[in-house]
Specification:
Layout (H helix, E strand, L loop, with lengths): L8 E7 L7 H16 L7 E3 L13 H4 L1 E2 L2 H14 L2 E3 L3 E4 L5 E8 L5 E6 L9 H4 L8 E4 L3 E5 L8 H9 L4 E6 L6 H15 L2 E6 L1 E4 L2 E4 L3 E3 L5 E4 L5 E7 L1 H10 L2 H4 L8
Bound molecules: 2-oxoglutaric acid (AKG).
Organism: Paenibacillus brasilensis
Family: Belongs to the carbon-nitrogen hydrolase superfamily. NIT1/NIT2 family.
Protein name: Amidohydrolase
Length: about 270
């Protein structure tokens, strides 16, 4: 299927509960929610899952729980995408790569079930000791969906680094996709940072957060779809739900034309 700028692109964010350290249960739960998304009255063009949905933050057991080379996830999500002819950003998973390290990895499938990208989180979150258990990715990643949507990848803590989103926008992204496990009490940071990334880069931001309690941490949901003018198109509550919204790429060009931020930049004056 080829995307035309005038055509709306429907997105469904799966704001799910994640069971700590239980990949089989999480896989089955995620599949149930994805089935709900594709059988809704308006079928989505893209499904997005939250961060580390296979294991949650069971970091002390992550080497034993992580999906070996992402094989399990790749197999069933690719089949789901092809069966339902839907693009899927399979959130991120704990993936044990062939180098023996575990990464926090986003995997993207198109409507044929072909893998179009994989991105491992480049900024590891010290507050949750990610850096002690996980290996950071080493590259930014962009991918194209339906031949016309230029998406950039960011995972959770990555949104605190405006350089990443700006670099993706400068490379041509008109959409930032953000799987997350972002907890209370930082809802204000979540909303503000995502909105800022949308406004400053004049791009859509689609952020899928998990819900529910894990240990003594409460994850608040509030998944967001924000347009390039910074308007919130859809926002989740604090319970499990599927949040839907539509992207219209023409709006990106419209906003960039109205306030020509990219033309007005003075990169030679910025230190780094
Ligand atoms: O930056 C934050 O406040 C939350 C980040 C986070 O929870 C994560 O990256 O997993």
């Amino acid at each position: 299927m080829t995307y035309h700028a005038a055509q709306p692109f429907r997105v469904a964010l799966i704001q799910a509960y994640i069971e700590l350290g239980n990949p089989p249960e999480n896989r089955s739960h995620m599949r149930t929610l994805m089935e709900q998304a594709v059988t809704a009255a308006q079928k989505p063009d893209l499904i997005v899952l939250p961060e580390m949905w296979n294991t949650g933050y069971a970091l002390d057991r992550i080497h034993e729980l992580a999906d070996k080379e992402g094989a399990e996830t790749r197999e069933w999500v690719a089949a789901f995408a092809a069966t339902h002819q839907v693009n899927v950003v399979a959130g991120s998973i704990a993936e044990k790569k062939s180098d023996g390290h575990v990464y926090n990895t986003m995997i993207v499938f198109d409507r044929t079930g072909a893998e179009v990208a994989s991105y491992s989180k480049i900024h590891l979150f010290r507050l949750m000791e990610e850096e002690k258990y996980l290996q950071p990715g080493e590259e930014k990643v962009m991918f194209t969906l339906d031949g016309g949507i230029q998406a950039g990848a960011a995972i959770c803590y990555d949104i605190r680094f405006p350089e990443l989103a700006r670099s993706l926008a400068l490379s041509g992204s008109n959409l930032l996709i953000v799987p997350a496990e972002w907890p209370h009490p930082r809802l204000h940071h979540w909303r503000t940072l995502l909105t800022a990334r949308a406004i400053e880069n004049q791009m859509y931001v689609m952020a899928c957060n998990r819900v529910g309690r894990s240990g003594d941490t409460d994850f608040f949901g509030h998944s967001l779809i924000i347009d390039p003018w910074g308007e919130v198109i859809a926002e989740g509550g604090e319970q499990e739900e599927i949040i839907t919204g539509t992207m219209e790429s023409a709006l990106v060009q419209d906003v960039r034309g109205r306030i020509p931020v990219f033309e007005d930049r003075r990169p030679s004056l910025y230190d780094r």
